[in-house]
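Appendix B. One record, verbatim.
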Amino acid sequence: MTSTPVVRESDRDLTTGRHQALGSLLGRVWPVDQVGVEERAASLAKRSIKREAKLWALDMVIRMTDLTTLEGKDTPGKVRALAGKAIRPDPTDPSIPSVAALCVYPNMVRTARAALKGSGVKVAAVSTYFPSGAAPLDVKLRDVRDAVKLGADEIDMVIDRGAYLAGDYGKVYDEIVAVKEAAGEHHLKVILETAELETYDNVRRAAVLAMAAGADFIKTSTGKVQPAATLPVTLVMLEAIRDFYAQTGRAVGMKPAGGIRTAKEAIAYLVVLYETLGPEWMTPDRFRFGASSLLNDVLMQIRKERTGRYSGGDYFTID
């Protein structure tokens, strides 16, 4: 026979107060000007930069990359090979920096950590029943605790989009708070899965909710739903970060993930980042790219800028 959990009155009052404060906060989130956001994102994407700035930007893209493999067919050998690439993206060029992190499923965390030992590259683990987030809270929390025990440095969680779209913001908020507690000192990236949120207003509101609940980063997508990251959605989230920082003084990071495949696209994201949040956010501590195929194109562009000619994809390892 199982016992019924006892909910203390003080706990209930605390939760009620927290939800009332959340409701007040979300009530102050103004609607997004869809036309304005899309026009500004398109305008910033057309910005051209000089060669020296471009080389700096390409270097920064690599430093900001979470090299990712999230397939059912991932093997220890594949993860070890990707870890080698994370440390030395171009083995023939020691001036190329390491990436920020290697992102894997929890069952591959131990393999990734061993392969990355001493490199400074972080291990990020997707958790909370990724990619759907459709599981009981105790399952999600066990997923997070297991990833931490196995050696993950960072946790990428997914919100319950069904609860969010049903208007149960309190449930989504409480789950993020609980996951943050389970993650401890480890950085928590909260994935909104923006394609399923459908509107810019929903994206902005979800971003504010995640930040209020304690997210260290907010992230666009799992990469499993299309469209994944887009410039307008990223701009909406960056503006939410800007306004949250102005109101609270707490800096939150941003991670567009999924669908960013070329160096040109990545540089456009850096332009939007710089114009929205300024130079303080131009660091891997506050901005990441979640990508699996972006790195090779960046390496090819660096070689082209340095030598004046393109190298084919065959010159680099396949991710």
